[in-house]
Amino acid sequence: MLRVAEALSLARSQERAALVPYVMVDRGRTRRLRSVVQAALEAGASALELGFPFSDPIADGPILQATADRALSNGTDWSDLVESVEIASGILPTAVMSYANPFWRHGFDHSLPSIARAGASGLIVPDLSLEEARPWIAATGRHSIDLVLLGAPGVSETRTVRLARATRGFLYLVARYGTTGTALSAERIDLTPIVRTAHRAAPRTPVLIGFGIKDPATAAQALAYGADGVIVASALEERFVRSFAPATVRRVLGPIARALRARGA
Amino acid sequence: MPRRFGPYGGAFVPETLVPALSELEREWRAARRDPTFRAELRRLSRTLAGRPTPLYFARRLTERARGAQIWLKREDLVHGGAHKFNNALGQGLLAKRMGKPRLIAETGAGQHGVATAMIGAALGLETEVYMGEVDMERQRPNVLRMELLGAKVRPVTSGQRTLKDAINAALRDWISSVRTTHYLLGSAVGPHPFPSIVAEFQSVIGREIAVQSRAAFGRLPDLAVACVGGGSNAIGTFHPLRRTEVEFLGVEAGGARLRGAGAASLSHGRPGILHGAYSYVLQDREGQISETESISAGLDYAGVGPEHAWLKDSGRARYIAVHDDDALRAFHWLARDEGILPALEPAHALFAAVAEARRRPPHQRIVVTLSGRGDKDLEVVGRAARR
After folding, report:
1. Residue A238 sits in a domain of what CATH number?
2. Could you give the number of structural domains in chain A?
3. Searching chain A, which residue's CA lies closest to the CA of residue B269?
4. pLDDT tens profile B298-341
5. pTM for the whole structure
6. CB of A249 within 8 A of CB of A45?
């Protein structure tokens, strides 16, 4: 299996826009996870972001908050994360998304090798700012996990340069002022200058846009900003509530994948 | 301004918030050197907040303890009925200086919400306060006060619907509104530079204690006692006295007897990352934040300010937990002995102070920070008395 970084670089070198769906780990879903990830692969996903639920997800809007609450009340714990990574990473290159505290609580010497052995090659921590990332970069490096940093609108150009150079695998660019979710943000922010800055600072590092990517139009807009791909989270989780199944994946990702291919062509 | 207190503190936040936190730190550094800002803060502290607050010798409470003298730092007499206004005033002026037209705040007991609503009205800033539904129910008078002061109270329905969840909601609002809004954080928690800013605005408590105790009994007290939820009145008491010989005792909420850890993060938690800072946190083995419980909404919080974490580890301060029933007992002592209705939060500190006084000789002096008045708690206390 390719690493997340390799899969995204490959897509980029072939001028394919990358599609990265997000699925939250939930003990109640493990049985169907394989078929759901398989459907994502078939729909054109390049990699997978596997979210670990946290009790206090400050960067998340109502949909992912509710998803996390359900997962936790189903008893989801570290063993479910490891099992889900094992399942998913056999099908798609897999990055884990988790708030800082669960990884910290389990200890880097336990948490990082444990997901690396299970097959994860990336880690995304939404509440880790660049200032706090140093020990995390060192520790993830030791366990051959790519620590993916997040960029955002409003961040200064010099800081975007530092983020683009420090991130591994790809730069996760947050599309807007706001939390995750499918609700329309009041304004559209032109991300072109940020993407351009990141590409100039780290020409080999793909930039993926997430937060609010929910349909062909928002995905195409992300590519118009110059991004190398998109991350789709809440739009999927919103529909997983009713049915955690391959058909849901096809319904959400199919049209987005087609839009991405059309842009690439 | 320290980013870390020993290993604690930092800024574990989404990048979206980093520009705002940097701007806040920049403005704060400029403001504290600016004579105009300082003069305005001093003027409003005196004419609006009602500072300085008195240091009161609790004679009959001392007689009850039959040991060291107990003195009360009367923060319950600050405008709004709690120490919270010290910080709301300072940060309100900072927000005005930064040109942010909107304030948001979280509140547990409602005292910080009331203080923010007051300064919002006084400075002409739009104000919205996030409050857990459970807390809105148990601190109803404060909800009404905030609304009368022109603030919008936003009920928080996620999680356990108390202070922790109100902070989550306020942080999420701020992530979306950061260019036009100042998050007026009410406790010495959260990402850098909040713990330092709040500590400095609250340090007026400890500075006054130093001056007033020298005037009243010719020296500094032997022991300073304060309750700790997030820890703002305690850090305001301890921080300016940290290079003296004064002993510090922080008192956390132990919750109901024979039931869990209450809300005592320093006594029963372990280091972790919550609300942007590395500090002691009540959490399970998986790193999920624990539910807390306490009779006092203002102490009902799973985390604690990072400076307290370092005061604990470095041995400079001691922290203990006091149970609900003991806090209630102390509430009644102060009401009957001194004619003062304390808030349930400092009632925890009062109980611990009386216990300390019993063990100490009469020539020793204990200062307790009476961080708020008890009007908001009458229903809760009444219900407990009927049980």
Report:
1. 3.20.20.70
2. 1
3. A105
4. 999 999 999 999 999 999 999 999 999 999 999 999 999 999 99
5. 0.96
6. no
